[in-house]
Amino acid sequence: MASAAVSHRTAEAPQTADPLVSVEGLSVDFATPRGTIHALRDISLEVPKGKVLGLVGESGCGKSTLAYSMIGLLAENARVAGGAIRMGGQDLAHLKPKAWRDLRGTRIAMIFQDPMTSLNPVTTIGKQMIDIQYREPISRSEKRARAIEFLEQVQLPDAAAKLDVYPHQLSGGMRQRVCIAMALLTRPDLLIADEPTTALDATLELQIVTLLRELQETFGCSVLFVSHHLGTVAELCDEVAVMYAGEVVERGHVREVFHAPRHPYTQALFDCDPARIRQATRQLPTIPGTLPDLRQPPAGCAFRARCSKAFGRCAAEHPPLHAAGPGQVARCHLNDPAEDVA
Ligand SMILES: Nc1ncnc2c1ncn2[C@@H]1O[C@H](COP(=O)(O)OP(=O)(O)OP(=O)(O)O)[C@@H](O)[C@H]1O
């Protein structure tokens, strides 16, 4: 399958010349009464400077766990079992709570699926936007003016008047715009967006995605965009990482991965994507089978039980990330140049 031009390098490409964040072999476990869940297993990827990295995969594959590890918001029962998250000379995977508090709201900010996760329901938008600027050495009226400026940046109509309203007086789409404005007010280098459009209808989703792209270009920050929606990822992202059962199974530039997915799981995700299915059907197709039990991840390829292309080696040997095309890697033996699949 792999062309002669593709090198034998494994687990290395694509490399970003100057990444903002490098995740290196990160493993995260959750302790539960029924055993340890190995939610992230040896994850390596890079968030490029000034670019948008999309993170896709079925529910439960570890997208949020990865996103939360990058902003120090893992649940109490989580433990970093190995690896590092490098950003500007620091290893975020092992920061103390105080160091995290300094980093959040300065270098790293997050927007959530539900805007009410980050908005206080009993405080006006204006007070929340002024309070979040507590580190800025400027007067209250200057902070107020900045808040209005940022609400205008996120295209909220009648921005000044919105300072006096409470979150529940705004629509869902407007609340999400306020959250984006608040995240950007702290001038983060990295903006993490965890399914920020899932609760919105399709028209609003498109508006928010377009806005995020414009703002990312204006502010020049890097974005980690977690999503179920392949179409949205295609619209917004420069690069994409596909996760399955706690591992990255494919990554590369969006154009290449979407044009020619090289992991059977990525191909199956595309086959189930409603936007790609032309004929009218009442039921959306799903990938047959279920995710493996993450308390005992299978040896060999984690996807093999659901993979129509599985063969002997898939049970015996855990596949590394093989170079699979220009700037593209896939964790599948079919991309091993040594594998004769012609
Ligand atoms: N606090 C926790 N305690 C125990 N298990 C957890 C905890 N948080 C997540 N998990 C488990 O870790 C695995 C990865 O979950 P995660 O939420 O990261 O997946 P996801 O891809 O973001 O899913 P979704 O798209 O549904 O948000 C799942 O098996 C999940 O049940």
Largest sheet: 8 strands, mixed
CATH 2nd-level architecture of the domain at 19-107 and 188-335: 3-Layer(aba) Sandwich
> How confident overall, as mean pLDDT?
89
What proportion of the residues is helical, as a percent range? 25-40%
Distinct ligands, ions and cofactors found in the model: adenosine-5'-triphosphate
CATH domain class of the domain at 19-107 and 188-335: Alpha Beta
Overall shape: globular
Question: How many beta strands in the DSSP annotation?
Answer: 12
Strand order of the largest sheet: 6-7-8-3-9-10-12-11
Number of DSSP helical runs: 11
Decide which structural class fits the backbone: alpha/beta
Task: Name the CATH superfamily assignment of the domain at 19-107 and 188-335.
Answer: P-loop containing nucleotide triphosphate hydrolases
What low-confidence regions span 5 or more consecutive residues with pLDDT below 50? 1-13
Radius of gyration: 21 Å
CATH topology heading of the domain at 19-107 and 188-335: Rossmann fold
State which percent range the strand residues make up. 15-25%
Distance N to C terminus: 7 Å
Order of helices and strands: EEEHEEHEHHHHEHEHEEHHHEE
InterPro entries: AAA+_ATPase, ABC_Ni/Peptide_Import, ABC_transporter-like_ATP-bd, ABC_transporter-like_CS, Oligopep_ABC_C, P-loop_NTPase
Family: Belongs to the ABC transporter superfamily.
Keywords: ATP-binding, Cell membrane, Membrane, Nucleotide-binding, Transport
Protein name: Peptide/nickel transport system ATP-binding protein
